[in-house]
């Protein structure tokens, strides 16, 4: 049975391919309108694809290429003269630039990159379909859409195109990672407020100012975007360094003999799987992974290691002491403060003394506590010689006995679903 996510990816690819084929067909049959302009935009789009950047969550973005393609889709007058390239030529020129820049010669393209190119091409086609027919038919002139009104009209279409791109990207991101659509869309909308707003503004400015400046608007307004890309690359390098630091700290307890080999990584993987099902976005998942990797760092304060590192079986106050000490260590590493806050609350009960749920307890802390206890119990069961499936079932049953106080029922329900392989909570 084909999943909904696979159908979505296939639909995006096939639609983009069909539009590109139609655009290329018209280009071959009728020839390009204003070949110099078409070649200039195609070249800038191809260069933009070559200097792409990767955002958190392995989300690929091509600021310069996307801005140039959007500008071509919204291009009206050029040097005071009307243009007539139309929707299909926009698709053909943008598609040629994207494919030539994104796909290395003689190499099989990465499926994720193919999806990204298809998404960007559909976004450009959407913008062109909204703008070009109205411009070429003279409807804008008849409506006296000039001056500020024309600028607002172009801005509105650019914004709609950006929202279209966010929806397409969220669907593809969900298909690739299993993230909930609402969380994936939230990530894309937050990105739209960052680099996305710069892309939309640049594309809009190029299309508007090309009416007076001609093709000089392309290099003039793409240069600041190139500088912005350099800043994003430095930020990505900082994130990579932070990740390496956290991985190193996470192994400290294993090297010192306080936790079994691979325990921190297993807990982090389980926690991220739970977080995706529970609707956490890319940024929250990254913080969750950091906290899960370093959740045992407080054990280094113990005089004698806990057997098998199984802190989940310790008294509540001892677990809380270890969590607080680990939090203090994390605060000194330069890791985002939310990570230290999550680790500090790892051993706190889910319920208050009056039996009501504690709303201040972070979801990340609830997730890591369940993932940690589950891995510890599975490890102990393995040491007793139990087969892996039996060990997992026994661990789940033991966790359910303490559900509600120590362990969040929602997180346990999702963990049970992951154990069955469907990633959904039990009914």
UniProtKB/TrEMBL annotation:
Q: Residue ranges of the HD/PDEase domain?
A: 256-386
Keywords assigned: Membrane, Transmembrane, Transmembrane helix
* Membrane-traversing stretches: 86-105, 117-135, 147-172, 192-210
SUPFAM superfamilies, A to Z: HD-domain/PDEase-like
Fetch the Pfam families from UniProt.
HD_5
InterPro entries xref list: Cyclic_di-GMP/3'3'-cGAMP_PDE, HD/PDEase_dom
SMART domains, sorted: HDc (SM00471)
Which PANTHER family does this chain map to? CYCLIC DI-GMP PHOSPHODIESTERASE TM_0186-RELATED, LIPOPROTEIN
Name of the protein: Metal-dependent phosphohydrolase
Annotated organism of origin: Kitasatospora cystarginea
Question: Lineage of the source organism?
Answer: Bacteria, Bacillati, Actinomycetota, Actinomycetes, Kitasatosporales
């Amino acid at each position: 049975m084909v999943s909904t996510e696979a159908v979505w990816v296939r639909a995006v690819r096939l639609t983009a391919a069909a539009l590109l084929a139609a655009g290329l067909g018209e280009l071959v049959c009728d020839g390009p309108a204003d070949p110099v302009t078409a070649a200039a935009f195609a070249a800038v789009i191809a260069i933009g694809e070559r200097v792409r950047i990767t955002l958190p969550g392995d989300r690929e973005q091509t600021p310069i290429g996307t801005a140039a393609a959007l500008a071509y889709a919204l291009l009206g007058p050029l040097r005071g003269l009307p243009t007539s390239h139309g929707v299909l030529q926009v698709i053909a020129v943008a598609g040629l630039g994207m494919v030539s820049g994104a796909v290395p010669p003689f190499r099989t393209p990465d499926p994720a990159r193919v999806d990204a190119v298809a998404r960007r091409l559909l976004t450009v086609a959407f913008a062109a379909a909204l703008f070009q027919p109205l411009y070429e038919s003279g409807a804008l002139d008849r409506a006296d859409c000039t001056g500020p009104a024309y600028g607002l009209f172009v801005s509105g279409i650019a914004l709609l195109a950006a929202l279209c791109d966010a929806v397409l990207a969220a669907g593809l991101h969900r298909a690739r990672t299993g993230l909930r659509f609402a969380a994936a869309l939230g990530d894309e909308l937050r990105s739209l407020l960052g680099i996305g707003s710069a892309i939309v503004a640049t594309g809009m400015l190029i299309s508007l100012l090309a009416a007076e400046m001609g093709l000089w608007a392309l290099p003039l307004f793409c240069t600041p975007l190139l500088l912005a890309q350099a800043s994003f690359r430095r930020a990505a390098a900082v994130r990579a360094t932070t990740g390496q630091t956290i991985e190193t700290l996470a192994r400290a307890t294993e090297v010192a003999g306080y936790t079994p080999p691979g325990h921190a990584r297993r807990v982090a993987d389980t926690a991220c799987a739970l977080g995706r099902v529970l609707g956490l976005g890319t940024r929250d998942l990254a913080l969750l992974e950091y906290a899960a990797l370093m959740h045992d760092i407080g054990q280094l304060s113990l005089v004698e290691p806990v057997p098998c590192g199984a802190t989940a079986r310790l008294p509540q106050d001892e677990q809380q002491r270890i969590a607080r000490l680990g939090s203090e260590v994390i605060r000194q590493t330069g890791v985002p403060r939310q990570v230290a806050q999550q680790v500090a609350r790892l051993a706190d009960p889910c319920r208050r003394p009056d039996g009501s749920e504690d709303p201040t307890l972070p979801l990340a802390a609830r997730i890591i506590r369940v993932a940690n206890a589950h891995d510890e119990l599975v490890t102990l069961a393995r040491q007793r010689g139990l087969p892996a499936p039996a060990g997992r079932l026994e661990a789940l049953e033991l966790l359910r006995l303490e559900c509600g106080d120590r362990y969040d029922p929602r997180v346990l329900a999702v963990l049970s679903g992951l154990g069955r392989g469907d990633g959904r909570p039990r009914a």
